[in-house]
């Protein structure tokens, strides 16, 4: 996958970002609309996090109506909660995302291989802040800084989910800063990926039905309902010891076949049929997880009907 300067090899994730940005720019029907002032209701703590996320999405789509927004974009919610007794104030920051970046941890040496669920759990777990926090409510009441917790969660999951695996390690100064590649095995589900554990807490999904616009969008868009599962339909793998060199191979589900284990392997101009997720001797899951110098780098999922 090469774009830009033909003398340089570009990263697969950079390529996808380039394509996504171009599609977003070219297909956005509302790109000439001036961005409205952010609604206070998207930050009003009187509403649940999910309610405010729907409101935030309404504001976003009022000026972003593209193919990328429709199929690929979700919402990440970062919430800081005051832990002073009797306060309970929360501040949430919403961000639009079109891919989820997951850490590939180092092997512990005891035979354990990290996987997608462990990486997502680590990213979305509740944590206590090391420093005290400036809580707006406590500050208004003349109190000092407060202990607080933080949690990152997903508040909207798109129809098409792109997950990139962070396999780039620290640069090697002896080789001019060439980034090292983390080549260890990393497991992920081919079918039935469950994203609900990483969604906003169930108690924070209450929709105020008196807010008719939010209630209608919530009912109409499955993206705000995390119960649906995902199937992997493509994986971009990298071969080689460094991202400065090597080669990309794509595995793509063959949707002309009714057998979900029928996939196609794209290696430049060569296309061959392979089995993925069958459990047979020809199974290519081991190659996707990481075998020799071949590892999955970009995962593409679609929501199950």
Could you give the topology of this structure?
Blueprint: H1 12-27, H2 49-61, H3 67-71, E1 74-82, E2 90-97, E3 100-103, H4 116-124, E4 127-128, H5 136-140, E5 148-156, E6 160-166, E7 168-172, E8 178-181, E9 193-194, H6 212-220, E10 229-239, E11 247-253, E12 262-267, E13 270-275, H7 285-289, E14 294-303
Parallel strand pairs: 3-6
Antiparallel strand pairs: 1-2, 1-5, 4-5, 6-14, 7-8, 9-10, 10-11, 10-14, 11-12, 12-13
Could you please describe the fold and organization of this structure?
The chain has 305 residues and is α+β, with helices and mostly antiparallel strands. The protein is built from 7 helices and 14 strands. The chain has helices spanning 12-27, 49-61, 67-71, 116-124, 136-140, 212-220, 285-289; strands at 74-82, 90-97, 100-103, 127-128, 148-156, 160-166, 168-172, 178-181, 193-194, 229-239, 247-253, 262-267, 270-275, 294-303. Strands 3, 6, 9, 10, 11, 12, 13 and 14 form an 8-stranded mixed sheet that branches. The longest helix is centred in the first third of the chain and has 16 residues, at 12-27. It is globular.
What labels would you give this structure?
8-stranded mixed sheet; Cathepsin B, Chain A; globular; 305 residues; disordered N terminus; 4-stranded antiparallel sheet; 7 helices; alpha+beta; 14 strands
Q: Can you name the CATH architecture?
A: Alpha-Beta Complex
Order of helices and strands: HHHEEEHEHEEEEEHEEEEHE
Q: What low-confidence regions span 5 or more consecutive residues with pLDDT below 50?
A: 1-9
SS summary, helix count: 7
Largest sheet: 8 strands, mixed
Q: What helical percentage do the residues reach?
A: 10-25%
Radius of gyration: 22 Å
Number of domains: 1
Mean pLDDT across residues = 86
**What fold name stands as the CATH topology?**
Cathepsin B, Chain A
Q: What structural class do helix, strand and pairing data support?
A: alpha+beta
Which CATH class? Answer: Alpha Beta
Distance between the termini: 31 Å
Count of DSSP strands: 14
Instruction: Report the principal-axis shape.
Output: globular
Can you tell me the CATH superfamily? Cysteine proteinases
Strand content: 25-35%
């Amino acid at each position: 996958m090469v774009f830009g300067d033909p003398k340089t090899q570009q990263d697969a994730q950079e390529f996808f970002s380039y394509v996504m940005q171009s599609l977003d720019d070219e297909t956005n029907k509302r790109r000439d609309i001036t961005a409205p002032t952010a609604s206070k209701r998207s930050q009003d703590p009187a509403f649940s996090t999910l309610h405010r996320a729907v409101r935030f999405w309404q504001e976003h789509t009022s000026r972003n109506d593209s193919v990328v927004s429709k199929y690929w974009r979700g919402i990440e919610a970062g919430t800081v909660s005051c832990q002073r007794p009797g306060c309970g104030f929360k501040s949430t920051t919403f961000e639009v995302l079109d891919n989820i970046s997951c850490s590939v941890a180092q092997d512990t040496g005891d035979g354990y291989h990290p996987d997608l669920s462990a990486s997502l759990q680590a990213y979305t777990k509740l944590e206590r802040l090391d420093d005290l926090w400036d809580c707006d409510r406590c500050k208004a009441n003349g109190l000092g800084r407060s202990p607080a917790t933080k949690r990152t969660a997903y508040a909207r999951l798109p129809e098409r989910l792109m997950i990139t695996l962070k396999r780039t390690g620290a640069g090697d100064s002896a080789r001019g800063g060439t980034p090292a590649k983390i080549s260890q095995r990393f497991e992920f589900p081919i079918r039935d990926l469950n994203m609900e554990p990483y969604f906003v807490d169930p108690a924070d999904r209450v929709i105020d039905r008196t807010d008719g616009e939010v209630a209608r969008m919530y009912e109409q868009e499955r993206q705000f309902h995390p119960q649906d599962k995902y199937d992997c339909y493509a994986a971009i793998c990298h071969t080689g010891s460094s991202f400065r060199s090597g080669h990309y191979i794509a595995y793509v589900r063959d949707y002309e076949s009714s057998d979900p284990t029928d996939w196609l392997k794209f290696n430049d101009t060569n296309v061959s049929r392979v089995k993925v997720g069958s459990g047979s001797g020809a199974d290519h899951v081991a190659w996707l997880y990481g075998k020799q110098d071949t590892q999955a780098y970009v995962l593409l999922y679609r929501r199950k009907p």
